[in-house]
Every structure is written in structure tokens, then in C-alpha cells.
Amino acid sequence: MQSRRNKGKLLRQLRDYGIITIAMILGVIGLNLFLLPNEITTGGIMGVASIVYWGTGIPVQNTFFVLNCVLLLVALKVLGWHFCAKTIYGVVVFTISSAILQGIIPPGLHLLADQKFMACMVGAVFLGISIGLGLSAGGSTGGSDVVAAMVHKYRDVSLGHIILFCDLTIITSSYVVLQDWEKVLYGYVLLFVVSFVVDHLVNSLRQSVQFFIISDKYQEIGEAINEIAERGCSMLNGNGFFTKKDIKVIFCIAKKSESNFIFELINEIDPNAFVAQSAVVGVYGQGFDHVKKHRKLNLNELREKVVKNAE
After folding, report:
1. Each residue of 41-52: pLDDT tens digit?
2. Which of 47, 245, 246, 293 has its CA 20 to 30 A from that of 170?
3. Which domains does the chain have, with CATH numbers?
């Protein structure tokens, strides 16, 4: 059982790092093929690095790497080593991939040169998917993503809105180098599309499901869910209406991405188990989202309002 648990944990870690690798490569493609050649500014440290590149010629990956190192030193204390380890990995992959791609791209290659709006849209989708996948796997591309993750940890604020707020100033400041408000306007459009894609992707990947499992081998299934899938479950007492027998019902909530793995465990232990799965909206607690801090309720004021309304 312990070896299977370790194997499951290792596979999940490898999956996360694989997702982060793909996410960073997508971000590199969007930035280097569609945004930089068309002088369309993005936000965050990518945007700062782009502005430095247009103004001084310093490669984007160099500025991106140095600024992220400074930001991650602050994030280590707030987000912890687990998040920052994946983010550091993402920053390194992004930096190396960007350097490799710039070495491969033929000089003078300018995709969608006469269709800047289309280049803006395509680049925004690439960046949005990159940021969303990175955050869903526990990492990020650095920059405003890290700031967004730090704020989102304590406040119930949309990740996309935080990124939007952090990046507006950076995009506006690109006018100092580009001297063209039309290009700045493309940057604003890019930012809105990226924030939309991030919210849509992250929310879809964070969906949760609940299981009701009825099986004579409930003890083995419960232990497998606890030890191998590393998900908590509860045992409910029930009674079969037709059979008139006492039964045990396992109740479990898990991430949607974990549902196939749980089904495999159940099928391996008891192929004849009765399983009902359904989607749930909003799951808070250990292993899921944390309840965000809001303004504390004043119980005395609440009681006075109730009494006043009753009168």
C-alpha cells in the first residue's frame, strides 16, 4: 500500500511538472512569434522585459530571469517552497526555451505583420493558456502571476482581475519606448483577453466531483482512497430498500482531474461496486480551496437587525 501511495504521489508530481513545461513552451511561442515582432506589449515581468528589449536590445529572457529571481525571494515566505519550486522551474524552462526559440527563428521572420489584431488575439490565447495551465499545476510564469497567487491566497479576488490590475501600468508605460498609442491599445486588448482565458481555464480545471460508493469491500476501497489517492472519505450507514440489508456507503469529494484514478482504484478492488458521481460547486477545506477572508460579521449588529425586522 505504501509503495502504491509513493508511486501515485510521484506520478502526480511528474504530471504537474510536465504541464508546467508545456505551459512555458506555449508562452514562449506566443511571446516570441506573435507579440515581440509586432511590438505588442503584455503585462507583468514579460511586459517589462519586452519594453527593455525594445529600448536597449537586451534579450527578453535575461531581464525576465533576473527580475523573477528578485520577486521569488519575496514569494518564498508568502507562498512557501512548494509553490515557488514549481515557479522557479517554470521560470527556468521559460528562459531556456525562449533562448532556444530565438536561436531557431530565421532573421526577419514576422508572422501576421499586416494583421496586428490577429497577432494580438493569437498571442493572447497562447499566453492565457500558459498562465492558466501553470497556475493549475501549482506554478506560474512568474511576474504578476506570483503577485496574483499571493493576493488570491488571502482574498476572494479573481486571479484574472488581479493580473489585470497589476499589468495596466506596465502596458501604459510602454508608450515611453514605442511612442505609439495604437500599439499600447493593442496591449490593453491583449490584457483583457489573457485575463478572460486565465479565469475560464483555471475555473474549469478546479471543478470538483463527489462520489457515493456502495460495495461489500468498503473497507478496502476506503483505505485505497485514503492511502493511494490521498483523499479523505466518510462512511455513511444505510439500508437497502429491496434487500432490507444494512449497507455502508462511502462518501468522497475529489478534484475532477482525480476522478479517473479513483474509478480505477474502485474497479481494481470491486468491479461490481455501485458508484454514483456528480459535479459539485464550491468545495472548501483541507485539500481544496480555502475560504477567503471577508469583513467579519458583527453578531450584535446582526441580532439587532433580526429583532428590528421581527418587530
Report:
1. 887 788 888 888
2. 293
3. 2-205 (no CATH), 208-280 (3.30.70.120)
Cβ contact 95:64 at 8 Å: yes
- Give the full edge-to-edge strand order of the sheet including 246-255: 233-239, 246-255, 208-214, 274-280
pLDDT digits 0-9 by tens, 135-188: 777 776 666 666 666 666 666 666 556 666 777 888 888 888 877 888 888 888
Cell numbers at residue 57, please? 536590445
How deeply is 303 buried, as exposed, middle or buried, from its count of CB atoms within 10 A (0-12, 13-18, 19+)? exposed
pTM of this structure: 0.67
Question: Which residue matches cell numbers 437497502?
Answer: 240
Concatenate the DSSP letters of all residues of 249-287 into one string: EEEEEEEGGGHHHHHHHHHHH-TT-EEEEEEES--BSTT
Query: Residue 188: what pLDDT?
Result: 86
Taking a C-beta distance cutoff of 8 angstroms, is the pair 112, 78 a contact?
no
- Bridge partners (DSSP) of residue 233 are 252
